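Lesson 9: reading folded outputs for more than one chain in a single document. The general rule is that every protein is listed as its sequence immediately followed by its structure tokens, and records are never interleaved. Here is the first one.
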Amino acid sequence: MSEDKTAAEQQFVEAYHMPEGMARHEALERAARTADAVDHLPLGVSCRIALIRSAHDLGRYDLMLAPFAWCGAAEKRDPTAFDEWETHTFDWAHKWIVSGLLADPRFTLDQVWSVITQLGERYQRHGYSMQPVYGAQAQLAEHIGNEEGYREHFARYLAMDRGPMSDCEACVIEDQAGHLIRQGRSAEAVAHAEHQLEKDTGCASQPQGILTTLTPAFVELGDLDRARQAHVVAHRLVRDDQYGGYVDDHLVFCATSGNVQRGIDLLHRQLHRVHHSPSPSQEMHFAAGAAVLLSRVDKPQDFVVPHDGQMEVYSAPRLRELLEAKALEIAERFDRRNGTDAVSRRIREKLASADTPHVPLAVPLRTEVTPEPEEEPTPVADPVELAQDMNHAFDHGDFITGMRLLRSLPRDLDPLLPEGLAARVAARRALAARQSPLHEEHATALDELDAAVARLTAAGEHDFANRYRSRGTAMRAERVGLDAALAEARECVAEADRAGTPYTRVLTRLVVVDLLGELEATDERGELVREALALAEADVPELVSRVRCDVAQHLASIGELDEASAVVADVLAGAPTPGVRFDALRLRLKIETVLGLPAALETAEEFVAAFSTPRGPWTAEAHRQRVASIDRLEVEDRQFEQLREAISAAHELGVPEDVAHACYTLAGGYLKTGRFVEAAEALEEAVRVIESHDVRDDIEVPVRYRLAQACSRLDENEAARTHLETALPLIPDEEPWRRALAYDLLGGVLRRLDRASAGAAAYADAARQWERVPDPAEAAGSWVESAAALPDDERDQCGAALDAAERLLPAMDNEEHRTHLSARIAAIRAFLHFQAGRHAEALERNGVAEELAAQLGDVDWQSFLAQRGARFLLQSGDPVNAEAEARRAAGLVTESTPLQIVGDTANVLEEVLRALDKPVAGDPVLRALNARLQD
């Protein structure tokens, strides 16, 4: 071969291995011209076949025409220039050409019929099934609105047996399901297609094709849970697809099912399609689907659209107008070509899509939260009377009424109030601001409270000033530390004892009790709650139940849970105020959760129901405690609706940590039930919240670790790596077990990304962290994984990792686990010995590994090791013993043996037989193995 042809081949190889995209396509075109210039016909064929596939992957059927025509001429010139794969691809491309011409109104119907005829003649000539031909005819009939022709051709399509040129079984079922849905037979469509979802077809269009097709059928049948799952899984597979279909279907679903914000997020990822869709058909359908979505956008929203190298900013109404006009204009072009109004009619029907019942998704988004219900109207009254009623409600434990009245008192009415009363209103506002999810309100609450206390003091309201000063110490602890806050709270107790009312003497003691909850000062807490109870029983009866809740809290804190439960039950059996009931239900929920009682879920339900209307910070706290209970009880997989409700409440009323924790817990339920896409979506919502707020590391780390787990299961390894590498620096050094878990997961992710050395290093880091815990079993396992991950040329490092693992084996308690790791170590050492040319040592270690595998009862592992022993023998020049070992490996194969092991065993046996000049085709053992592979 000439140097020019060799250089041309190298040019093609470099172009072929470029990332998918127009740059690769253009490089392949240059390689094709070079192949022609040096008269290298087989290379020219390879270039054109690669161009055909590239055009298909880009969705640019217009780019397929030239290489397709070139291949047709080349085939007539010299059919032998095509290898088997290239011939197969060219045969398949005849179907693609039909779809491409049909999707572009610049081509006439005569041209479409011509390529369909050419498709039929070619497939008939090659003896292929005519099913794809009937499918193309049905596709054309449906496109132009020929319903009778469509039914006829589609019936033939279904009746014909599949062949090597037929679409995969899943894609055929997708077509069938779509046909049934168009006929109004949604239940039949679901029954026919759902079994296919359990199979892994390997098709790039599945399962998203079937799931997208079935989503509206599920909605129509009222099966909203399955509609949600179908959309969520399919959406994740298409959301970043730059060229493929189905995007418009999901935009319409989001628009009509009450998930507009999700649709907006998807649209932002796909705005390049506004001016740069692969084909007129895709441009039309995308424009119509996006216009449907934009018709539901009721808030200002900007969309940045790329166009001719520039970025154009559109409002939702303006973009909708553009896209709706575009969809109708392209539809009209199709109809002019077709001589019918079918396409325009379908596009107008899509644009007029009606809303369906709301379909709750995997996780509620921020803009989808339930609006706050209308509160009970506040009676019109004198501001002084309202302020007095508000204070009375708060002082007597009715914080819900108190908050309602406080909200009805705008700040601009304060000058109408007596100074002392106005200062008390200001103090109440400051305490309410502390519970606000808005950071700016929370940040200024203490300063506002201090100002109110100063006003009360100036007005001579010393008892109220001391009471609110005491209440402010909880906020002060966050700013100046617990010790300083406690000192001030104790000063308030002393001041109340010197000159305060009994109410304030009780209240100031309870404040100190709350602050002491952060410490181990159980004796002081006990003494203070006893004093508070005695004072309340003597002089402040309205506070007795509240103090008893604090007594119960103290009993629970010292482990007397039964006694605490009895006190809570007694309090709830009376007629507690809303404030007391809130504290009692919260404490009962915590106690039942610690005890692991199923009744905790019933208490959680009662707690949330009691404080959901009217809504306020108390609603967020009730949901917060329910989420904590569900998480601790590990029943996430049975509380999906409750957790989704908690996320909505957290978005509306809570703080970012509430959203993140509820999403984390919900994702745990999804992971337990194998719903990895939904788990990832829930955790991604948590990450969005975390990245836009100042959220604690101890919240962020578990979220990112769990999200990495979900991404790893979805084979989204680059995303998993990013989340783990973000989380690791946030994990405190004093938590080696958490660092070890993250490094272990990172090791596996890096291996799947073909970064073997980095993966081995991560496993080694995990092992060192496990040694710090200390957990010798986990450490040994991580060292073995590190050794297994190392590339073949790093034998010394691999041996060192195995040495580290072996040193830990004697400290392991679990004998089965120790045996398993010993077997893996022996198996890896066998491979290292063989690499180094120490064949006897390799066989000896391989034998040890097999004996240990036999002790574990792992027959598949035995079979693998036996066939590997046969290969060691064959490559060391001993085919006779290699044959015996290969046949022994074959004898260990069972019905459940993985096909990879079956294939490896068949391969080594065949190589041995050829090395011994023995017949291959008639060998019964080899035939049995090959039959198993074919089955």
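And here is the second record, again sequence then tokens.
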Amino acid sequence: MSDIMRPIPFAQLMDWILTENTEKGSIFGVRKIVRHEGGADPIFAEKIETPFGPAAGPNSQLTQNIVASYVAGARFFELKTVQVMDGAELSKCVAKPCIVAEDECYNCEWSTELEVPQAMSEYIKAWWACKLLARELGLGDPNGFVFNMSVGYDLEGIKSAKVDAYIEGMKDASNTAVWAECRDWALANLDRFEHVDADFVNSVSPHVSSSVTESTLHGCPPDEIERIATYLITEKGLNTYIKCNPTLLGYEYARERLNSLGFDYIAFDDKHFVEDLQWADAVPMFKRLIALTQERGLAFGVKLTNTFPVDVTRKELPSEEMYMSGRSLYPLTIHLAQKISSEFDGKLRISYSGGADAQNIKSLYGAGIWPITMATTVLKPGGYERFSQISHVLEGVERKDEVDVAAVTALDEAVAADPKYNKPIKPVPSHKLDWPLPLTNCFTSPCRNGCPIEQDIPAYLAAVDEGRLADALAIIAERNALPFITGNLCPHPCGTKCMRAFYEPEGAAIRASKLKAARGGIDELLASIKANKPEVVEGAQGKNVAVIGGGPAGMATAFFLTRAGAKVTIFERKDTLGGVARHIIPAFRIADEDIDRDVELCCAFGAEVKLGVEVKSVDELKAAGYTDVVVCCGAWAPGHVGLEYGEEIDVLDFLGAAKRGEDLSGLGSDVVIVGAGNTAMDAARVAKRLPGVENVRICYRRTKRYMPADEEELAEALSEGVELVELVAPKGVRDGVLTCDKMVLGEPDESGRRSPVATGETIEVPATAVICAVGEHIEGDLYEAAGVETDRRGRPAGCATGAEGVWAAGDCRRGPARFVDAIADAQQVAKQMCGVDFSKYSEANVRAGHEASCYERKGDLRLGCAGCQNNSGCLGCATVCEACCDVCPNRANVSITVPGLAQHQVVHVDGMCNECGNCAVFCPWSGRPFKDKLTLFWSAEDMGNSENRGFLLQADGTFLVRLEDGIGSYDVDDANCGLPEEVRLTIAAVRDNYAYLLAK
């Protein structure tokens, strides 16, 4: 793969833009084109219709990046930095991939990888394109946007011939070759426009930029910074911003603030804080420069802030140091904004870039901070169309000419309590699927693939959003026998794969929508079941199945088997069905009424239930005529802390007693929970509610980062006042005191968690009662008597236990697990025993004909409006994914419609890619679109420098195609040419319908 970007000639760019807009209604993939009608505000001697745009970086490097930003509503463009080192020389210094923006963003690139003259050409082409589009498409005032140069990194380099030529060319481009190229093309192609004429073309101002942001490397001396600014002001006559580093805040402040917000894993020392510009030097320098610009009728301000240099410690990028931005930078940048605005009484202009997005930009702008530039937010799914939402968010917000110090102070003070700027307690699981990225037909539902039962999530979310609750529940119940229990209690592992989580951490409302469907559709579904007999599955005929245990696994097994036509009897030793959900999980998490509805559903196909019956022998059931026995008896055997002295209470005994309403006053005032799973969280929250209990503490031998409890459960417990005592291993309890070994974290164990190591020290924790929640065990008597072999944890080999006619599902199959895992086991039993197929609604996850509604959701964060609360937020990834297209700043991944194929196809354009790697971050597959998708090459040289599977148009009209098995020339009009059909059709579609992608 070649990482060399090939600038596109202006003629091809404009042909691409105009053709795509006419035929597709989009421009460089941006469908939400913004037309500004609200006037413009002055800045420098120019004006801007909106106060935001892309920051100097990947989104302002090429013409197409700037145009995509413009049509999405941006009007202030901080162009990517140029410096004396450029082109191939610079590219060799930039490790690739160089961007990872999954949460907070990191990068290890800094200035344009083009040669300086090429960069100037890109910016001038973008200037012309935006002017022409403004007039032709009615996007706003053709003079309502501003280009702001960014130059660095030392005075000598800025004075060099090529950087000086860049500055002068941007100040007045009229004598440059690229200016003539653009003007001449426009005059020669007036017939392609309705609203552009020769007078307009000739009126386009050649003064592309009158302002500059001075960018300096970390460690640049203060006198050098001032010399550069003075030169730009006095010698070049430019309105000037100085980009400030977060290091102005001092090491101690930065470290403490990031630690307090959960970003303690971000590693950095005090090196840059010591070497960078100091506050004591910055303030007087700013005052001198303010006076200097006022003398010359120019504007001066500060740009807050530069990215923040941190260490690479987790292989985030292939470098030793990287630059942090995004939501973890915001707490530092907004505090520096507060500090500077206070020092200068709001009179020093602040250009802002540090974690701004649709959620906070209205407050920033309302506080008098402008212009505002962004990178991280538009590097995430939704891409440039996030600008479209931002333009609407800012509609009607009045601009302030001075910074409102009180408002900025309020923003700074609000950070600590805002979840947006607090890292989750535990690491977020990977959103990646464990499968390679397909060359074609790659759209998928990652949420389904993250769900143990492969729930048809997009299908039922669409039905819920449309108000078809009974239909939604029918879709759910096809694979999920417990919609009420899972609607209340499922930890929704699907959510870790949900692409919506890149917009808001909670992702789409999958679980809540399931419960909404269950409550709204259950009566109609039950009536339908009663009125319509199910079709009997051939493999279920003659089956008479005994299910031992009426908990979630047993209920689900009975549901699937009876629906298939098998005869099923549930044997439950307690007096009600429901298992752990009924007898252990506290009522504040799930109501009995919801459990009752699941019981009703699971028995709807005729399962017989025998309560108060404890089965002790599988052989006895077989002797009684049952063809198969499914063991679903849970894992009720208690675990043990292993105290050297003192008593411990089993967590299931405790939770069961609490749910039965028994008197637990004997626990005393200080309850300690030993354990860190979800059951431990339930126990802690229940104990916290008991009369007489004053303190509840969870003792755990590792830190909260490594707790097995779900983030949601841990956060709930902590919010209710449960205390967490980390790095302690209990030894024994006596006289109201639990003595624990003090631990430290050592090397990672086989689970990936760092192992606790005893220090030899002890710590005492008040404890009038100690509850053990360290993991329940499987009762093995039934297995042993039936001849089922088990592992050291008492688990059989699988749902098919290896003993004839004996099956297992749920906790007694895999150990304590989630309810959804129990349902997954029930599915497997039904599949393996009877051949049940659960794919009835699989095709409904792809909603052909609904692509427009998927595109409509792209780029929009849920900002609390009524409309947001009334839908699930599902992006419809199986219908339209295109995440790699969204997040590519260079627009190098293009989605095309291919006649004959159901899905849109993604084509990677080699000449537009610099291997930043951002598409690989967000692709749901374990793949890299810039490497793994079918690639369009513009030259034989580029194809030869790449290993990608792809194609090149040849002079005779055939295509040179490289696939896994080799390379050859093909006539794609020949259906028998030997290419895979998907590949052949895709190449033909590019040629026939997307010719503007091909090199001219």
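What the second record shows: Residues 116-137 form the longest helix (22 residues).
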